[in-house]
Amino acid sequence: MFKTRPCGCKGLRSCKICEEKYGAFKIYDGIPKENSYVLCYKCKMLWPGCNYDIIKSHPDHQGESIAGRRGLIKNIDQLPWDQSQSGRLKQNYGPKCNFKKRKVTPEAFKGYPNFTKFIQDRFKTLNLLKSFETVEQCSLEYTPERGSSIDPHIDDCWIWGERIPTLSLLTDSFLTLTKFTGLETKYNLSDTQTYPRIVTESGLVKDFSDICKEFKEIVPSELKHSEERVSYPLVIRIPMPRRSLLVLYGTARYDYEHSILREDIKDRRVCITYREITPTFLSCGPKACVGKEILEKSKLFWDSKEICS
């Protein structure tokens, strides 16, 4: 069936008419859908899929873009890494904090590298993070060669807020939670008695108006930890697959120390951890003036090419 047909097709070409009437067979039968990407002209990124629904879903794309998967690590590595403790390297962007003296210095805070903006934009598509306002962004590198790890700890509770999102890249790992049994003076945990929680026990984020209302009703001496926490497991191991986002809040945030064990670093791992400020620094809190300056600077993104050149 290579001759010219009445429908106009010839050679290997075919249409539905000659396939049905003359028995021609279709050589090309579509694209492989399992590894296809669509260019979204609105955000100029390639997203997994094969039809126009990808464009319609902007900005709430599902999956991970080619730019996000390949370009993110490349851009991170083009910026200088600083030495950190326990075999880690870090890139830290945020106000300088002295947790013991309870002092914060936002003057030198210039915002974040522009190639990471799409990550913070994606937070707005998640119910748990819609109201999240990043005030610190910290990239960490772990490698087995350096025996990288991070000791059990609770992120400071004087300035860092309840939700702590972490994006894991390159390789799978584990976050290990260990029940905290120390004094509440450590990690400034006692400060949690002076401001309301952001997330309810059922995982719903409170409205800002409700947070402000609770602030006025707080009586620190009446706030005590629930006795039910005693029954929680002593150790919990949370898988962190590569390209996954883990958000600590509630019990996992305040009642457990979290760590990365050396034996769980099988290959190079890079993660980006984000922090918000406590309600104390929001507009309804006693440190609103300081919080306002930090939040204003947290909206800034600078051109990473100027640093790399």
TrEMBL record:
Q: Name one GO biological process term.
A: demethylation
State the InterPro entries in the record: AlkB-like_sf, ALKBH4
Keywords for the protein's UniProt record, in alphabetical order = Dioxygenase, Oxidoreductase
Q: Which cofactor does it need?
A: Fe(2+)
Q: Molecular function (GO) terms listed?
A: demethylase activity; dioxygenase activity
Query: Record keywords: Ribonucleoprotein included?
Result: no
What protein name does the entry list?
Alpha-ketoglutarate-dependent dioxygenase alkB-like protein 4
Q: Which species expresses this protein natively?
A: Armadillidium nasatum
Q: What is the lineage of its organism?
A: Eukaryota, Metazoa, Ecdysozoa, Arthropoda, Crustacea
The gene name reads: ALKBH4
